[in-house]
Amino acid sequence: QQERAALKDKIRRLLKEKNAVLVSHYYVHPDLQDLAEETGGIVSDSLEMARFGRDHAAQTLVVSGVRFMGETAKILSPEKTILMPDLDANCSLDLGCPVDDFAAFCDQHPDRTVVVYANTSAAVKARSDWLVTSSCALEIVSALKDKGHKILWAPDKHLGGYIQRETGADMLMWQGSCIVHDEFKAFELEALIQQHPGAKVLVHPESPAEVVALADAVGSTSAILNAARTMDAKEFIVATDNGMMHKLRQLNPGKTFIEAPTAGNSATCKSCAHCPWMAMNSLAGVARVLETGLNEIHVDPELIPRARQPIDRMLAFTA
Ligand code: 13P
Ligand code: SF4
């Protein structure tokens, strides 16, 4: 406890000294979420993290999240220094979509508009026409469909499947998945719903279709927060990374949040509703990178203009 308090003090001081701001994702440890807000940074979803980092005056951004979030910040602000507590904090969607294979897939389908999820490398972004996050994917694909586009979608098959079902768009799909959301189980979720008949079910669309089918609200991390705030219920079952529980409980005192069931416990499942890469972020890591300047994110300068285009399109669409 004392050590945590000392680390927080150190980070507060270093953020000021280095003209830096802390940007945290909803899935990281509550300490990093609270500290980001308290020091003038932000805790948010990947879309708002990108926008905030681009618009903030600080010269250094400390991105507490996973690698693609740091890279997106660098692409949007190449002149800024982007630091991350752990450079190995990756994402199964990013790792499962290597650029050479992806480019070959795109080359086979030149008639399709390439829409990629933010959870990808800078090189994959540079090969795309549009970037989306889970909070704007539905609207963007729907608008493209209305203009007659056929879509090549990557990398998350569950999010892609959800959008296809909702919009009816013609989507050719890369077969990636998130190791956290892929673990949610419909059969066990149904049993839990029966035990809590008044509860509303909130599901992130990276979850399998059978789980999404049981949801009262489907959406990104920010959409889940919004649903919890506005829906008329006292109990909620939540199928997303359990890092979200902190904000959900903080913003909704008096409401109860229950984790949706995964395949097993920590001994038997790979992720158990908490992203192992998000978990690499720590107070000690943030203090260390601020102090030393280590763990800077670099993106190939040649890629930046091409990777920026699809991100700018998304930010303009959602402005
Ligand atoms: P959001 O875009 O909703 O923040 O989600 C990012 C992510 O990695 C979900 O697993
Ligand atoms: Fe990637 Fe899933 Fe972790 Fe999000 S929760 S960063 S999609 S592995």
Q: Can you walk me through this structure?
A:
- InterPro entries: NadA, NadA_sf.
- Catalyzes the condensation of iminoaspartate with dihydroxyacetone phosphate to form quinolinate.
- Its cofactor is [4Fe-4S] cluster.
- One of its GO terms (biological process) is 'de novo' NAD+ biosynthetic process from L-aspartate.
- The protein is α/β, with parallel strands linked by helices and 319 residues long.
- The chain folds into three domains: 2-89 and 278-298, Rossmann fold, CATH 3.40.50; 93-178, Rossmann fold, CATH 3.40.50; 181-259, NadA-like (Rossmann fold, 3-Layer(aba) Sandwich), CATH 3.40.50.10800.
- It is 44% helix and 15% strand.
- The protein is built from 15 helices and twelve strands.
- Strand 11, helix 13 (244-251) and strand 12 form a beta-alpha-beta unit.
- Helix 1 (2-17) packs parallel to helix 14 and helix 3 (46-55) packs parallel to helix 4.
- The longest helix is centred in the N-terminal third of the chain and has 16 residues, at 2-17.
- The N and C termini lie far apart (41 Å).
- The protein binds 1,3-dihydroxyacetonephosphate and iron/sulfur cluster (SF4).
